[in-house]
Design brief:
The complex is a heterodimer of chains A (266) and B (231). Chain A is of the alpha/beta class and 266 residues long. Chain A contains 12 helices and 8 strands. Chain B is of the alpha/beta class and 231 residues long. The chains are: A alpha/beta (266), B alpha/beta (231).
Chain lengths: 266, 231
């Protein structure tokens, strides 16, 4: 029985889809069987970032409406045998599916995969409710901007009300070292103090992320890029979460390491 | 004759300098009371109504409970005979709902939680919140608000109109403070922002201006908040 993790943020454009694609890829690198699910019906992107757009035949709505079997809609990744994508429909909208239907579908996927990563659309309406319905865990993505942190706070409040979802974990994306050091943007410590949830990882702002997304190759494949290492670390921490105490130590360790890292740079 | 004497015990009318005090027996039926009142009032024709305007009446009803409709009924009984208004009803009993309302408004609610953007925490009485109030979140209480954490959102103390209410926080950097109907937001210039925000309280002075002061001053600002204790 696998684990379903929803990647959400409230605000749009903070990197939910990129984070989903890269954590999924990084988890697949560790040999786990992973399925990525795009719930952003009507504005699907995950397939593009993964470079699988032209392989789509059926989508999530087709599965829910029973136009096809679940297995038919799953697209196998180009690079990994253990990585699959369930794309969203582009011609429908969020109301095409109900949370209960998504929940059933995710439950079905959990039988076959170790991890199901659910890419959540921006907002807190129907699309969000669909995405969260089947999730066991949640990753909240934010950037070091006030508006993004505010929306993350809102979404954490909503996630805390979900009985089936464990306490959410935080990923801070698009960190610009020099701005944090100069005090021009919020620093990691400040963000964590406001949001008051466990930090799962931090990802630096890196041109390579955009470049590789445009090429349909997740940056996590490149072992030299800093952002890639960050995503791989996040994947390791997710794997480590089966041992609760370990994960806690791991997180504080990384947090300290990051502070040291920032200190050296400053 | 004897029956008339017994009746006479149900209603005792006393005159005071403020008006009339009516002591109403709490054992007989309400109909008997009204009946007797009518009798008594008709025996004493009203002479004051045209001279002094309405007479204020205080009802002392002991352990009888009268709802608003019944009080209205009594008032109608009076007004047939004389020009009166019921000024005060002194009862030794109250409904469970009223008692619970009263209890709620005097209680202290303890919450251990982070209040996040978009969430509204509303309580009757005082609240002690162990956790932060994040930007975009609101905490409302009919009484006082005490926050063991950072207040970064909106706090509204005494929101039903209690101007005596105070807001205390370990760290006071609110986006807005409200007490009763008075609203205050922090100054726009950012230079003052980082100084002196630890352990503060907000209150209204006699002119209904909201002031923020050190927590140490609270005992002199609102002496009623504390219990007497010998140290």
């Amino acid at each position: 029985m696998g684990e379903a993790i929803v990647v959400t943020s409230g605000k749009g454009g903070v990197g939910k889809t990129t984070t989903t694609a890269n954590i999924g890829t990084a988890l697949a690198l560790t040999g786990k069987k992973v399925c990525l699910v795009d719930t952003d019906i009507g504005l699907r992107n995950l397939d593009v970032v993964m470079g699988l757009e032209n392989r789509i035949i059926y989508d999530l709505v087709d599965v829910v409406e029973e136009n096809c079997r679940l297995q038919q809609a799953l697209i196998k990744d180009k690079r990994f045998d253990c990585l699959y994508l369930l794309p969203a429909a582009q011609t429908k909208d969020k109301s095409a599916v109900e949370p209960e239907q998504v929940k059933k579908l995710i439950h079905e996927l959990k039988q076959d995969f170790d991890y199901i990563l659910i890419d959540c659309p921006a907002g807190i309406e129907q699309g969000y409710k669909n995405a969260v319905a089947g999730a066991d865990q949640a990753i909240v993505v934010t950037t070091p901007e006030i508006s993004s942190v505010r929306d993350a706070d809102r979404i954490i409040g909503l996630l805390e009300k979900e009985e089936n979802v464990a306490s959410p974990k935080l990923v801070i994306n698009r960190i610009r070292n020099h701005m944090m050091v100069n005090g021009e943007s919020m620093d990691v410590e400040e963000i964590v103090s406001i949001l008051a949830i466990d930090l799962l990882g931090i990802v630096v702002d890196d041109d390579d992320v955009i470049k590789s997304s445009n090429n349909g190759e997740p940056v996590a494949l490149d072992p030299k890029c800093k952002a890639s290492i960050a995503y791989r670390n996040i994947a390791r921490r997710i794997n480590g979460e089966t041992v609760p105490l370990m994960s806690l130590e791991d997180q504080t360790g990384v947090f300290k390491k990051m502070k040291k890292f920032l200190g050296i740079r400053g | 004759m004897t029956s008339k004497q017994r009746k006479a015990q149900h209603v005792i009318i006393k005159g005071t300098k403020d008006g009339l005090t009516l002591l109403l027996d709490d054992q007989c039926s309400l109909d008997a009371l009204i009946h007797e009142l009518q009798d008594k009032l008709s025996e004493h024709p009203d002479t004051t109504s045209n001279v002094h305007g309405p007479v204020k009446v205080k009802l002392v009803i002991g352990k009888r409970y009268l709802d608003d409709i019944q009080i209205k009924e009594l008032e109608n009984t009076f007004s047939k005979e004389m020009n009166v208004i019921i000024d005060e009803v002194d009862s030794e009993v109250m409904t469970k709902a009223d008692a619970e309302e009263m209890k709620q408004n005097n209680q202290m609610t303890r919450i251990v939680k982070f209040i996040r953007s978009g969430q509204v925490l509303e309580v009757k009485g005082d609240i002690i919140l162990i956790g932060d109030v994040n930007p975009g979140a609101t905490v409302k209480a009919t009484g006082n608000i005490y926050i063991l954490g950072r207040l970064r959102g909106v706090a509204h103390a005494g929101f039903t109109g209690n101007e005596e209410a105070v807001i205390c926080a370990s760290s006071m950097t609110p986006s807005q403070l409200r007490i009763a109907s008075i609203i205050r937001r922090p100054p726009e210039n950012k230079e003052n922002e980082t100084t002196g925000q630890e352990m503060e309280c907000a209150y209204l002075n006699e002119e209904n201006e909201m002031l923020i002061d050190k927590l140490q001053k609270l005992s002199s600002i609102r002496p009623n908040l504390t219990m007497d204790i010998d140290l």
